[in-house]
Amino acid sequence: MVPQLDFNNKENLMMNKLTLLAAIMIGYSVQAAAPKQEDYYKFTRIPLPQDVVLEAGGIAMLPNGKLAVSTRRGDIYTVSDPLGKADEMKVKLYARGLHEPLGIHWNDGWLYATQRCEVTRIKDEDGDGRADIFETVSDGWGISGDYHEYAFGSQFDPDGNMWVVLCLTGSFSSTTPYRGWCVRVTKDGRMIPTASGIRSPGGIGLNHLGDVFYSDNQGPWNGSSSLKHLKVGSFQSHPGGFRWFDLPQVKKHMGKAPVTPNSNSRIPKERERVKEYVPPACVLPHAKLGNSTSGFAFANNEKFGPFKNQLLVSDQSHSNVSRVILEKVNGVYQGAAILFMTGFGSGNIPSYYDPSGALFVGGSDRGWGARGGKRFALDRVNWTGKVPFEIHEMRAKPDGFELTFTHEVDPKAAGDVASYSMKAWTYILQSKYGSPEVDHVTPKVTGATVSKDNKSVRIKVEGLVKGHVHHLVSGGLRSKDGLPLLHPNAYYTLNEIPKK
User: Fold this and answer.
1) Domains and CATH numbers, the chain
2) I want to staple 336 with a disulfide (CB 3.0 to 4.6 A). Which of 359, 394, 405, 436 is the partner?
C-alpha cells in the first residue's frame, strides 16, 4: 500500500518526495519479480540456412543422434547435434520429392513418412546422410488435386499399426475414397478402415497408455477445435465420408454406417442417437486457447518438469502449446486444457519430445498465418529446473472438481470460495461452419476444502452441466510463498459427471 502523503507541509515536502520515490521503486521491484514463462522454460531457436524453406510437418530423432524434420514442400532435412548449442548445429538435406509429409517416425531401421498419397519407408543404406531407398508401404486411399486433402500419420501403436487420419476434400465433402476417415496401416502394408467422421486433422499420436488421439479443427460439425479419442469403429462427428461404408473392405471391418447426426443439435443428445459417436476428449476453446489445434507430444519422464505424461498440444494460428490433462470417467475420455507456453517462432504443426528433456516444435504460417511472425521455424524448449506455480491436474468429481498444484498453496486463499469463479457453455453441433458459444450457465463454487499437505483442493460446484466446457478461473489463489498461478484459467470438457 502506498502511504498517504501530505504535500501541503513544506517541511515534509522533501521527505514525502523520497517516500513516494521509494514506494514507486518498491512497486517496480515487485512487478519485475513477478514470475514469467522464461523463468521456467527457455527457447533455443534452431538456425536455418537461407536457402532452406523448412515448413515443418514432421519431426523424429534418428539413431545417429540427428533430428529429422520433414517439410510441407516435400523435403526431409537432418539437424546435427540438435541437443547442443544452436551455433554448432548443421542442417543437411536427407530426402527430396515427397508429397507434403505430415508425420515421420523411426521404427525398425526405417524412417516412415506419411505423405498425402501413401505411407513410405525410407532408408540411408550407404550411410552418407542422404536417403537411398524409398518403398511404398500402403497407398490404399484416394487423392485428388484438392488443397485440403492432408494426411497425418502416427507412430506405431503397441500392436504394430500406424494410424493415419485423412482430411476431407474441402471442409464439407469426401470425393475420393476414405477422405474423412482414419485408417490403420500394418507394417506389411495392409490398410484397415478404422473410424469415420474425421474433418480437418492437425496432428495425431498416442498417449502414454498407447491410446490414440488426433486433433480436429473448427468447422462443419465441429464447434471448436478439440482433441479427440480414436477408437476402432468410432464416429468422430462429420458424416461427409459415410459414402465409403459401401466399400467391401469397410463392410468387412466396420459394418453399417452410423446414424447421421441431426444438425443444429447438441453433442450429449446426439450421443444418445449415434451409438458410435465418441465426443471430443478435450475442447480447446476457439480464440481462447487457439484457432487451429495441431500436433502434440508428451514428456515420458521428469526431465521436462512436473508435467509427466500430460499431452502438450500445439496450436498453429496462436503459435502456442497448451497442457491437456485427461482422465476416463464412465469409460469416456475427458479433461482440462491449460495454456502452457507462448512465443514460438511460427505456426506450430509437429512436435517431438526427446527423452533427454527437450521438446522440439516446428511449423509454418502458410495458408492461415500465425502469431509467431516467421514464415517457418524450428524451436527447442528445455526446462530450467525451476517449477512454476500451476494447476497440476484438474479432475471431475460428482459435486465439483479436485485441483492439485505444483507448489503448496496458501491455505487461507485456497480455502476461500472467492478465489474461484466459473462459467460454462457448449457448442451447436451443426453442418454449418463452426459455432458460437451457446447455452451459457454460471455454476457456483460453494465450497473449497484444502488437503492437509496444502497440495490439493476440492471445490464444490453447484450447476455442473454434462457436455459443457467448464471454465475455471482461480485468480485468487496464491502459493505458500505468495506467488500467483502462472496460468489461472482452466477449461474442462465435462462429457460425463462421475457417479456418487
Assistant:
1) 41-383 (2.120.10.30), 391-493 (2.60.40.1220)
2) 394
Q: Tell me the backbone φ, ψ of residue 424, rounded to 5 degrees.
A: -145, 150
Q: Please report, as a single letter, which amino acid is at residue 249.
A: Q
Please name the residue that has the C-alpha cell 520433414.
Answer: 70
Helices (H) and strands (E) in the chain, counts: 4, 32
**Distance (Å, rounded) from C-alpha 347 to C-alpha 298?**
19
Nearest to 48 by CA among 93, 99, 100, 101: 93
Angle, alpha carbons 320-322-323 (nearest 5°): 155
Report how far residue 464's alpha carbon sits from residue 443's, in angstroms, rounded to the nearest whole number. Answer: 6
- On whether the CB atoms of residues 393 and 462 are closer than 8 A, the answer is no
pLDDT tens profile 331-378: 999 999 999 999 999 999 999 999 999 999 999 999 989 999 999 999
Q: Confirm whether pTM is higher than 0.70.
A: yes
pLDDT tens figures, 442-454: 999 999 999 999 9
The answer to whether residues 326 and 282 touch, using CB atoms and an 8 Å cutoff, is yes
Nearest to 279 by CA among 288, 287, 269, 292: 269
